[in-house]
């Protein structure tokens, strides 16, 4: 299965980006994961949505070609970071490439609640008519205190979290294949 990861942090040392790359490496036998960066995505502007910049067209083409999407979100001020919302706005207009495409949400934060508020908001947003993405439920991945769970090479070292991810990824792949 071909999956793209959309990561809501553009900082160099992002834990959420590390998580996406960890998943890419660990499950390479099971899924083909491309990790997308939102760093060069321009701000959404309705004035230019019909002649969108090349960066937007390239981003949307990658999402369109994927069988499923892994959303990896930090939590900013109790919600989804602006870069993630910006990406969703582009995806929701003109060529609505997310409609019917299955998704899973994960997230990591330094706080104990592991992005629970951001993820609840993101779930709601992904059900909006321009996105309308079926979402895996019952496999919520909230990684709290994330700064204690990765080593300097970007490996997730928390055994319990890794074991849980193993189960969640299997559940996701089994569920998502119904939509392909
Ligand atoms: C945060 N952080 C944060 N953490 C959290 O658990 N709940 C929150 O509401 C917020 N709010 C927040 C706002 C802003 C503007 C920043 C910069 C940070 C801390 C956040 O969890 C931490 O910076 C993570 O490391 C961000 O994810 P990445 O960039 O490491 O992927």
TrEMBL record:
Keyword terms of this UniProt record: Oxidoreductase
User: Is Oxidoreductase tagged as a keyword?
Assistant: yes
So what EC number does this one have? 1.-.-.-
Q: Where is the NADPH-dependent FMN reductase-like domain?
A: 1-128
Name one molecular function that GO assigns to this entry: FMN binding
Please name the InterPro entries in this protein's record. Answer: Flavoprotein-like_sf (IPR029039), FMN_Rdtase-like_dom (IPR005025), NAD(P)H-dep_reductase (IPR050712)
* Highest taxon in the source lineage: Bacteria
Q: Name one GO cellular component term.
A: cytosol
| Enzyme class name | oxidoreductase
Q: Which family does it belong to?
A: Belongs to the azoreductase type 2 family.
| Protein's name according to its UniProt entry | NAD(P)H-dependent oxidoreductase
